[in-house]
Design goal:
The chain has 10 helices and 9 strands. The protein is an alpha+beta fold. Strands 1, 2, 3, 4, 5, 6, 7, 8 and 9 form a 9-stranded antiparallel beta sheet that branches.
């Protein structure tokens, strides 16, 4: 590896490390304030909100990496422009496009490490964070999970415990369900078997159930039971996908598909992770183009404002396409890759005369 390549890579890594640490500090402070607000009426040990904030921060950092890489690239160029190092590179025959190529390839390989190592770590920490915090929420005694055996729900109502297992979800209905009702000591009260349950509201309507109680079997046309869950709440329980590793996301998608439950959100999250190295690389190239095209500006603050403007614009464009994907107005692949293709085209257009800057 050539000396100037090592120099540029190390300079970029230093800028990335510095920017990440600064934002990590800011995010953890905001998280601590949020946890203190949550626990203001709950008696916990003093260090606990800080502990939870620390567990939760890496997942926020991962979501902010597109912004972090853009900002880090700007900081990197601040250093080499202010010290006139870029002129030395130019006199040595190193073109602007070659500098961008070096830091872009560095970004791509760093991104792969972030996906394989950092994301798995942050998702595990997020999962542990949610598990700890769940104990202090009103819903801590309720549970809903999706496995390869279908949907499982633990529900506590008036001191009784309901365990529900359903093979599928179809719109607002649970299909092929078996409900076991226990008292608080886990003595079986009754079992209910049915082909269809309407869960649109908290008052569930069980159609043509077979009730097994005290060795007796009874069939009725309709049975209503109250639950702390409804269809919207069940959907929201599985919305925090940042707490799942890539492997777990793939397994969850398989479970969703077997349950006939919409896996669009999971598919979008998987596609985001797969495309993340390309996204971060494009953000690095965009930041480089911004810095070369604003060299005439004396104010570094103005250059940062340009970077922030484009990062916010890209964030909202991505969100817009994600909404189209979630609502199935676009395919999952289109909702993820169209914004990246557009960003790539913009980068190619402005890279044409980059060596003249």
């Amino acid at each position: 590896m050539k000396t100037y390549t090592k120099f540029l890579i190390m300079g970029f890594i230093k800028s990335l490390t510095y920017t990440t640490l600064v934002l990590f500090g800011l995010i953890i402070i905001l998280n601590v304030l949020g946890e203190l607000e949550f626990f203001k009426n709950i008696n916990v040990k003093t260090y606990f909100p800080l502990y939870l904030a620390t567990l939760n921060t890496p997942s926020f950092i991962f979501e902010m990496f597109p912004f972090i890489f853009l900002l880090s690239t700007q900081v990197f160029f601040f250093n080499i422009l202010e010290n006139n190092q870029i002129q030395i590179f130019k006199y040595s025959g190193l073109k602007n496009s070659q500098i961008i190529k070096i830091i872009s390839l560095s970004t791509f390989f760093i991104s792969i490490l972030l996906i394989t190592l950092f994301y798995n770590m942050s998702s595990n920490l997020k999962s542990f964070y949610l598990e700890l915090k769940l104990k202090y929420t009103i819903d801590g005694k309720y549970l809903a999970v999706i496995t390869n055996n279908g949907l499982w729900i633990k529900d506590v109502v008036d001191g009784n415990i309901n365990i529900i297992n359903s093979s599928k979800i179809n719109d607002n209905h649970l299909i092929d369900s078996f409900i076991t009702q226990f008292d608080e000591n886990y003595n079986v009260i009754q079992n209910i078997k049915t082909e269809k349950i309407n869960i649109k509201e908290n008052n569930w309507k069980i159609y043509k159930p077979t009730i097994l109680k005290n060795n007796n079997k009874e069939k009725v046309d309709i049975l209503e039971i109250y639950s702390n869950f409804n269809y919207e709440k069940i959907k929201s329980l599985f919305s925090n996908l940042t707490s799942l590793s890539l492997y777990k996301l793939i397994q969850l998608k398989k479970n969703y598909d077997s349950l006939n439950y919409s896996s669009v959100d999971v598919s979008i999250q998987i596609q985001k992770l797969v495309s993340y190295p390309i996204f971060l690389t494009l953000m690095t190239i965009l930041a480089s183009i911004i810095m070369y095209n604003t060299r005439a500006f004396k104010s570094n603050t103005l250059k940062l404002v340009f970077g922030l403007f484009f990062s916010v614009l890209i964030y909202y464009i991505n969100n817009f396409f994600n909404v189209l994907g979630n609502t199935e107005k676009l395919t999952v692949s289109s909702s993820i890759w169209i914004p990246l293709i557009l960003l790539g085209i913009i980068n190619i257009f402005f890279m044409r005369r980059i060596n003249e800057k």
